[in-house]
Design goal:
By secondary structure, the protein is α+β, with helices and mostly antiparallel strands. The chain contains 12 helices and 9 strands. The strands form 2 sheets. Strands 1-4-5-9-8-7-6 form a 7-stranded mixed β-sheet, sandwiched between helices. Keywords: Aminoacyl-tRNA synthetase, ATP-binding, Cytoplasm, Ligase, Magnesium, Metal-binding, Nucleotide-binding, Protein biosynthesis.
């Protein structure tokens, strides 16, 4: 008769008591096990009925244990969510994404690397020598002005362009040199919709025997079309930089719905001025960069500008505001 067992199981208030009841009835030394062992002493004609009764009792006890176990677990689960409102909507999972500047920089690097340019870099805290002197910039050039450039007491400065990396690279390299250098540049500009005092450039330099103006034009046109699309119109406008001759500014034609197309400046560029090679040759003490042996082109693109063109961003300050409503659009 399993009645004792069933009431003990029903009374169990936790899993430990329930387990004790299980051992007491079904365990090796349990009562049902003992009752089974007693069967061999019975007369043969009573055995089948006895065996059947044992089976019924065993399955009743097993079912009761399983049922009680489920009930106890349910109670424990209930307890663990007490005080938690299960009807509340889940909290939004915020997913990270890359910043538009990172996206455009990575794409620019990818295109230029396919064209054979290797990555180079240099310090953001620069010497006047690498930022200006070695780049053929006269002492009285306005870019050197304390009004335009951040100087440290040491006389060092925050680089005003990534062109200093041209010099850093050529000081150590052997031609041919074909590098790009993305990085920050700093100017004491008034901050507005198109100017930041910290901005991002991507410098490029190719120096070898017999590099021509056509190489510069072809390279940059190819690059800008790879970035903005095959049909992108590109314009080279004559300009002046102390370290290139001839020099150009590059514009890209921007089409905005409902507006007349506009030319937007994206880069400065030109053929490396022989004066840069002459000064480098003096500081290196060899003739690998002698202007009689090598020519080259250089360019410096505004990465912030490229991002603004790519996504129609009207105010450059959005790139540094960290407004998630803006940033979310790029992930
Ligand atoms: N350094 C120039 C600027 O910041 C751009 C430039 C780079 C021009 C290389 C010519 C060659 O405006």
């Amino acid at each position: 008769n399993p009645a004792d067992a069933l009431s003990a199981i029903e009374a169990a208030s936790d899993q430990k008591t329930l387990d004790e009841a299980r051992v007491a009835f079904l365990g090796k030394k349990g009562r049902l096990t003992a009752a089974s062992a007693a069967m061999k002493d019975l007369p043969n004609e009573e055995k089948p009925a006895y065996g059947q009764a044992l089976n019924v009792a065993r399955s009743a006890v097993t079912t009761a244990i399983d049922g009680k176990l489920a009930q106890l677990q349910e109670q424990a689960d209930q307890k663990s969510v007490e005080g938690i409102d299960l009807t509340l909507p889940p909290r939004e999972l915020l997913e990270g994404g890359l910043h538009p500047l990172t996206l455009i920089k990575d794409r620019a690097i990818q295109i230029l690397r396919r064209m054979g340019f290797a990555l180079a870099d240099g310090p953001e805290i620069e010497t006047e020598y690498h930022c200006f002197d070695a780049l053929n910039t006269p002492d009285d050039h306005p870019a050197r002005n304390e009004k335009d450039t951040f100087y440290f007491d040491s006389g060092k400065l925050l680089r005003t362009h990534t062109s200093s990396v041209q010099i850093r690279t050529m000081e150590k390299a052997t031609p041919p040199v074909r590098i790009i250098a993305p990085g920050s540049a700093y100017r004491r500009d008034e901050i507005d919709a198109t100017h930041l005092s910290v901005f991002n450039q991507l410098e490029g330099l190719f120096v070898a025997e017999d590099v021509k103006l056509g190489d510069l034009k072809g390279t940059l046109e190819y690059f800008l079309r790879a970035l903005f699309g095959d049909k992108t119109e590109v314009r080279f406008r004559p300009h002046f930089f102390p370290f290139t001759e001839p020099s150009f500014e590059i514009d890209v034609k921007l089409h905005v719905k409902g507006q007349a197309p506009k030319w937007i400046e994206v880069a400065g560029c030109g053929m490396v001025d022989p004066a840069v090679f002459t000064s480098l040759t003096a500081s290196r003490g060899d003739d690998l960069f002698d202007p009689e042996r090598v020519t080259g082109f250089a360019f410096g693109m505004g990465l912030d500008r490229l991002a603004m063109i790519q996504w129609g961003i009207k105010d450059i300050r959005q790139l540094i505001d960290n407004d998630t409503r803006f940033l979310k659009q790029f992930s």
